[in-house]
Amino acid sequence: MTTVAAAARIRPKRVLPGFGLTMGVTLSYVGIIVLLPLAALVLKGAEIGPERFFAIMTAPRTLAALKLTLSAAAMATAFNAVYGLLMAWVLVRYDFPGKRILDALMDIPFALPTAVAGLALSALFAGNGWYGALLEPMGIQVIFTIWGVAFAMAFTSIPFVVRTVQPVLEDLDPQYEDAAVTLGAHPFTIFRRVVFPAILPAFMVGVTLSFARSLGEFGAVVFIAGNLPMKTEIASLLAVIRLEEYDYNGAAAIALTLLMIALVLLVASNLLQARALRYKGRGA
Amino acid sequence: MSHLDVAPGALAPRESRTVPRLLIGLALVMTALFVVVPLVYIFHRAFAAGWGVFVRNILEPGTLHAIWLTALVALITVPLNIGFGVAAAWALSRFEFRGRKTLLTLIEIPFSISPIIAGICYLLLYGRTGLLGPWLNEMDIKILFAVPGIVLVTMFVTSPFVVREVLPLMQAQGSEQEQAAVTLGASGWQIFRRVTLPNIRWALLYGAVLCSARAVGEFGGVSVVSGSIRGQTLTLPLQIELLFNDLNTVGAFAAASVLTLLALVVLVLKTVMEARR
């Protein structure tokens, strides 16, 4: 019976022409543009051998770069978790003049090329920039420090949390909140016990995406970081430096590690996404 | 939108004014500090020395060449990407086949990979000691540190953009209209041009706009494969970095303001098209 059902589902679809052509184009494009280069990296990585790989990844400069990248990305993500949630809440729940402009502004960090963002931020925080002129007399240095790296990462990943939480918050049935109000719950309690659990899966997807993007951010960071070895050098920049030194093994090892972290985060966000969808389905 | 009236804040008179006002105020201040000021600052610095200096900076040969090269890369990349996007959306939405989910994941992969890693992959593939390096050398084909390498990396980075917009729409629309066209004896190309294309044109245009914006602004991946040869392989974002490192900040901001203006145009187009779709 299942085979009949499956056949019935497949047959009408194959009525349309163009399967061979479109499939051929798709597979060639993905193969040549995406898979072949990735295969080159994996093959190069396999060539290095586990011992050499381990030595490269535990060298002090590599460890310092990884530590900086992970800590700055964590700082950027923490900022965006709070800011993103605030923006999603304000944009969905309140009406005020200029709301649509505020909503559109959330897309700026994705629309703006990262090199432009990096240039603007590093100049803003430089001693003669608008922010630097205010902060430096107070003894706060942002450029050439981890704060600058984190700020650049935060800027380029602003939209993730906002744009994942926003639709879920919009779909949230207000009757549960109304019930909580009639039961005399404090607004903050309602948020914590009713709203937050409902948006948590989507929020976690946004946070994961934001963290992944921060780890991979390059353009905005290299402008503001100063790129001092052992201090403000991010992992992907170190990989590029190794390439420029013709140390292909070093570059491949670091790039492969970053690739694996990115893939783990991709799987995590897909699993979270599936959970978020399940949750939504149950609520409806 | 009607549930706004009965939002919890509205039912609890004690909190109804203060908390929303506080949150809205906080949102406005933070967005002003983190998004608006950097944006304004770009134009402020670009035009700080006046229009004359701005125009001179834009017309400087290096920057002019970078603008031309960036446009060229986008003009090659975007049409190829549209072709791929439509083909992939057709294959994935109109047919059932084994490995469909895997193919979808593979198409999405460039989104989760840092462009800088993509650049390194391309260098390891086409570089002198790379997989294809010796063969390319023998055939005297130059890919790295030249336009083909820049185009290929940009294709990698932008490859999911068109599919992502067109595929969900084609899936939602279903294929009844196209099947009807088949029974009426239409050819594949006729079906696509007369039935499918009119249905997906806004999503297609939207994807193409996002793809162009990304192609024009790509920095990390391109910086690895371009070799940064002055006046030859510098795209506009790379030219910005070069000017910045040369301490020509005014020139860097002039070049950056061109890209910023483009980004703002894209945002406006996006808003308009989202309403249309």
TrEMBL record, chain A:
Annotated Gene Ontology cellular component terms: plasma membrane
Residues annotated as transmembrane: 19-43, 64-90, 110-130, 142-162, 190-211, 218-241, 253-272
Top-rank lineage group of the source organism: Bacteria
One Pfam family recorded for the sequence: BPD_transp_1
Location, primary (coarse class): membrane
Record has Transmembrane helix as a keyword: yes
Topology within the bilayer: Multi-pass membrane protein
Keyword line: Membrane, Sulfate transport, Transmembrane, Transmembrane helix, Transport
Family annotation (SUPFAM superfamilies): MetI-like (SSF161098)
Record-level Gene Ontology MF annotations: ABC-type sulfate transporter activity
Domain ABC transmembrane type-1, first and last residues per copy: 66-269
CDD domains: TM_PBP2
Matches recorded under InterPro entries: CysT_permease (IPR011865), MetI-like (IPR000515), MetI-like_sf (IPR035906), Sulph_transpt2 (IPR005667)
UniProt subcellular location: Cell membrane
Family: Belongs to the binding-protein-dependent transport system permease family. CysTW subfamily.
Role: Part of the ABC transporter complex (TC 3.A.1.6.1) involved in sulfate/thiosulfate import.
NCBIfam families per the UniProt record, alphabetical: 3a0106s02, permease_CysT
Known partners and oligomeric status: The complex is composed of two ATP-binding proteins (CysA), two transmembrane proteins (CysT and CysW) and a solute-binding protein (CysP).
UniProt protein name: Sulfate transport system permease protein CysT
Gene (name only): cysT
TrEMBL record, chain B:
Pfam families found in the cross-reference section: BPD_transp_1
Residue ranges constituting the ABC transmembrane type-1 domain according to the UniProt record: 67-270
Segments passing through the bilayer: 22-44, 64-91, 103-125, 145-163, 203-229, 249-269
CDD domains: TM_PBP2 (cd06261)
Membrane topology: Multi-pass membrane protein
Keywords: Membrane, Sulfate transport, Transmembrane, Transmembrane helix, Transport
UniProt GO cellular component terms: plasma membrane
Major localisation: membrane
Subcellular location, record wording: Cell membrane
Subunit record text: The complex is composed of two ATP-binding proteins (CysA), two transmembrane proteins (CysT and CysW) and a solute-binding protein (CysP).
Name by which UniProt lists this protein: Sulfate ABC transporter permease subunit CysW
Gene behind this protein: cysW
